[in-house]
Design goal:
elongated, 3 helices, mainly beta, eight-stranded antiparallel barrel, 12% helix
Length: 323
């Protein structure tokens, strides 16, 4: 008798724990259940049938709405408006849950057959990002303390960027484009001594640097199992441009362009269906063998190429759109 009482209490508590979520189907049925996981195509949930707890899935295409943590009456409301017991005592063969199958593979097959070629649709991923940027290149040698401090301040800047990828059906590798603009600026006044003239003079100096990267981007997306959250790995080789609209007693324009390499690592963390917080770090590698200064070309020796490599740390938003 005590054992039967214990079993009764156990299943009563278990069902009470389950009956805190609900799913409303496109047919108008409402299921009390315990939602255990939501993926891009399915809602996984547990439900009670008499003294047994069962697990199943339902396709998102079959769901009109769902809620977590909301207690509803212990009924299933059919499209006709009639109500039936959510814990039927009859055989499971007439349970309304059976409409959506108890087996994951069976439900998946049903989805593939019913949607045909549409089931092979891919995924579109769009990210918009902002970051702190830091120039990693070795500084010039022989600078005075104040010029060295000026150069160090130019190392820190900002970056804005965006990426767009398409992931074919079931593929973890996406193909797309990545673009970024990195900027930094500084200004100051410096004193110099001219040994020929034997006199000192001051000069105002200003730098406004802009570096743009644009190229095809290959992205690996590895789901973590937590909703749509995923680890993101990317690489790219593309076009790199350098512009510095400077001033040193007069306006000076520096320009250069070449190839750049980008490596990046990030995480997409779901905040809403199809909307994710994107945290990332990236490294853009570039060095220029020549630049133009006010239209005249200046070529650097191989061991003194202008290094524009920089690291970036930041975040943004990612949007996932079924393709």
């Amino acid at each position: 008798m005590k054992k039967l009482l214990f079993i009764f209490i156990f299943f009563s508590i278990s069902y009470a724990g389950l009956a805190q979520d609900y799913i409303v189907t496109v047919k108008g049925d409402t299921f009390e259940c315990k939602i255990t996981k939501i993926t891009e195509r399915f809602i996984h949930f547990d439900y009670a049938v008499r003294d047994e707890i069962r697990s199943t899935v339902i396709l998102l295409d079959q769901v009109q709405s769902y809620n977590r943590g909301i207690k509803k009456s212990n009924t299933i409301v059919n499209q006709s408006g009639t109500k039936s017991d959510a814990n039927p005592t009859q055989d499971q063969s007439v349970s309304p849950y059976n409409t959506y199958n108890d087996q994951y593979n069976a439900n998946k097959d049903k989805y593939d057959k019913s949607t045909g070629e549409e089931s092979k649709a891919g995924l579109l991923r769009l990210s918009i990002m902002g970051a702190y940027s830091y120039l990693t290149a070795k500084g010039a040698s022989g600078l005075s303390a104040d010029l060295k401090a000026y150069e160090d301040e130019l190392r820190s800047g900002y970056q804005f960027g965006a990426s767009f990828h398409y992931f074919p059906y079931k593929s973890q590798t996406g193909y797309g484009l990545r673009v970024s603009r990195t900027g930094t600026s500084n200004s100051g006044t410096f004193s110099f001594f001219d040994p020929d003239l034997q006199e000192s003079f001051t000069i105002n100096v200003e730098d406004n640097i802009s570096m743009v990267y644009f190229g095809p981007h290959f992205c690996g997306r590895y789901p973590t199992g937590l909703d749509q959250s995923a680890l993101i790995l990317g690489t790219s080789i593309g076009y790199f441009s350098y512009v510095n609209n400077a001033f040193a007693g007069q306006s000076v324009n520096f320009r250069g362009e070449g190839l750049g390499l980008m490596l990046d690592l990030g995480f997409d963390i779901q905040v809403a269906e199809g909307v994710l917080l994107h945290l990332f770090g990236s490294y853009i590698i570039n060095s220029l063998s020549k630049i133009t200064v006010n239209g005249s070309t200046v070529t650097f020796p191989d061991d003194t190429r202008q290094d524009n490599s920089h690291v970036n740390f930041g975040g943004g938003l990612t949007f996932l759109i079924p393709g």
